[in-house]
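Exam revision sheet. Question 4 asks you to relate a sequence to its structure. Input first:
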Amino acid sequence: MTTVRTRRTGAHVFTATNDRGASVEVGRAGQDGVFSPVELLLAAAATCVGVTAEQLVLRRTGGGLAVDATDVRPDGAHQLDGVRLDVELDASGLDDAARAELLDVVTRAVEALCTVTRTLKQPTTVETVHNW
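Answer key, structure tokens:
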């Protein structure tokens, strides 16, 4: 089981820390110097795809890999309608057949192994426990 602890460290600012000592500052959307909670969700989805695809892409292209994540929702809405993930890599050294194969292999790997995107695609229970 993975646990991330968030603790208030300032006005509208929380520090999220994992058990390995890594931390990130989280705050309200638009606030300077912090990620918003939605931005962390987007980062988690994009990074999950990147980590899952990394070795497959590097073996075939030897090049870089970037994933952009964008929230899909009407302005001002407090719930996402979706998440768009744009995967960018340099496949210029591959022929059409090799590009198609890479796309297929990466897609299957992400669909099978990416915990974050798999979770976002299904109804997920969120339980809030109050420890007073």
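Marking note for examiners. The chain is about 35% helix and 25% strand.
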